[in-house]
């Protein structure tokens, strides 16, 4: 050691470094522990992962059964028996059976505002908290609802095809369209999305009415307790309500008859709220004037009969796909998960005690 102490400083340091890096010395050192990340089970998976997967992976250890070759049930038994958090989306239809295989789960965080994919009774019974996205997408969905409506009435998509197919020089002027201004619009479900739809249609001087579970004291629109009565007094129905046992096939043959041959329907809620078979027949037979459909009863399968109808505008359940809302969604999901793992209240909890 005396020789070492007499060495120049840079050689002294070099020797110390060599000692530290020597394999025999390293073998006796305690290996550095990996950074522990909270574990979440991802099922679905939510589409937001395609945009923000790197950011999620820096904050959480993600179990991804959809990337495993083994069946989901076996994967869960092997890897997820101690997992406390589930991250999912409204399109994952096997969540309830999945939760039954997860004895330790304490929270479900979903990217959707709709909750028809979650058995809230099971969650309430087991003490599983649920976080959702109650208002992030309301403006985007309302924008698309009005966009679909204008497209159907003014025949924008059909006219676009007419021009691009080269028919304009051959067939001359296109068909007459229908104006939106002044129309009677019935909104089915006056929640956050329905209110945003109403706000936008006020600018078109539309006469707005609504049907909901109960009358909204803050809304100035005319209230109907019965959806058939609403349809009878409307030129247009816009479906904005949640899907549940009460609203399944709420828009049925009777409602469509009440809407009438000049009526138009727009659905930006859930496909099963409308009896799809009846809707297809009404459109084919000219018993209603048109439809703008963002959602379908058996997604991603869409009735092929609709493809040939110029008075129908279709969208692939993509109303929420905007860069701005995805950024807001990512922030909310992260805040909910971080709150859970910090034993703090969720940012956007579903009230399970109602």
TrEMBL record:
Gene3D superfamilies: NAD(P)-binding Rossmann-like Domain. GO terms for molecular function: oxidoreductase activity, acting on the CH-OH group of donors, NAD or NADP as acceptor. InterPro entries: D-isomer_2-hydroxyacid_DH, D-isomer_2_OHA_DH_cat_dom, D-isomer_DH_NAD-bd, NAD(P)-bd_dom_sf. The keyword Transcription regulation does not apply. Keywords: NAD, NADP, Oxidoreductase. It comes from the Eukaryota. Pfam families: 2-Hacid_dh, 2-Hacid_dh_C. Residues 72-350 form the D-isomer specific 2-hydroxyacid dehydrogenase catalytic domain. Residues 146-319 form the D-isomer specific 2-hydroxyacid dehydrogenase NAD-binding domain. Belongs to the D-isomer specific 2-hydroxyacid dehydrogenase family. This is Glycerate dehydrogenase. It comes from Cinchona calisaya. The lineage of its organism: Eukaryota, Viridiplantae, Streptophyta, Embryophyta, Tracheophyta.
